[in-house]
Amino acid sequence: MASSLITKKRIAKAFKNLLAENDFEKISIVIIMDQAFVGKPFIITF
User: Which regions of the chain are under pLDDT 50?
Assistant: First the structure.
């Protein structure tokens, strides 16, 4: 349950930061999730 709250807070913070930089119409779910590092894990390759 605690991880759910952490995820919600990360998404909310990412949305607030994006909203300060962009218009509401320009923000998508994909952009929010990328900003919050939620969803598919990214893989760093060398």
Answer: none
Phi, psi at 24, each rounded to 5°:
-60, -40
Handedness of CA 5, 15, 33, 42 (dihedral sign): negative
Supply the pTM of this predicted model.
Answer: 0.72
Question: Which tokens is 1 given?
Answer: 């349950």
How many residues are present in the chain?
Answer: 46
SS (H, E, C) the chain: CHHHHHHHHHHHHHHHHHHHHCCHHHCCHHHHHHHHCCCCCCCCCC
